[in-house]
Amino acid sequence: MTLPISSRLLSFLTVTALGLVALLVMPMFLDGFSLLQATLFVAVAILALSQAFLWGYAGILSFGQAAFFGLGGYTYAVGVINFGDSTGAIALSILVPAAFAALLGYFMFYGRISDAYVGVITLTVTTILFELSNSTSGDQYHIGSAQLGGFNGMPGLPPFNIPGEPDQWLDEKGTWYVAMGALLLIYILLRGLLATWFGRVVVAIRENETRAMLVGYDVRFYKLAAFAISGAIAGLGGCIYAAWGGFVNPSVFALSMSAQAIVSVLVGGIGTLLGPILGAVIIQALINLSGTQAVINPSLGMGIILVIFVILVPQGILPSISALISKLMPRPQSLAPKPQEVQP
Predict the structure, then answer these.
(1) Average pLDDT over every residue of 40-67
(2) What is the value of pTM for the model shown?
């Protein structure tokens, strides 16, 4: 007897298949410039995915995801300039933000900082990193042979290359394969992680932290681990962002980057992984569109659009679509026999 496929597994297989189609098919239909723009969408989608996991599943709202995103970008820039090879730089752009998130999370969670202050601390850290990177414009501010450049940033960064072959740089198509492949892999790994015992405990802590603590789970450890994983994911997004533009500057630490990640989760739907990816694509598309017109200030226009969108679709895109489909689809008839009427 064949067991029916659950809706969760079916949705996972569908999203994975669509991701593979996008990975392989888009380079066939997009030119180099359009493919580069699509790579930018992937970078911000990875940032949104880090926020989606941390906020939607671990219940930790971070106002400073840009800190890890920016650290990933700067780490890649410093590493690729000093190593001359992107392979080690990519690895460091994941490890350094993860280590920084683990260190910051240790003091927050083991110091029993409340959730409200976690948001304040992450916001403050992002602001500090933004100001710190802005003040490194002198020649004395360098790491190895990499000049940090202050507010001017670090231009002329080498793109990704074939591992072990620094002279074999990847073109727009190769960069797309790396970026989209990374996004798809992160999605698969997060879905797998959430299906494990660790993921169930993280969600249980989100639902009721006190109850999870009374049962015997070390809440601080699980929150710290989720925070470090989120930092690693955001760092990879920053790495792809830096390689995409061949440039990184203090704007990667700007509060607007953190706000974009939060809004992407709100638009796509909290408690989902696919929703924030779609939300990040929509938000970035609106940002690109608003920058091409001169009638309305882009920031004002984006604010108006987002407020209207959040009011009209408060649950987010994906939950709203799922609820609509559930209403339209007929409910299966119960197979249980009807109770017989009692004869008078």
Answers:
(1) 95
(2) 0.91
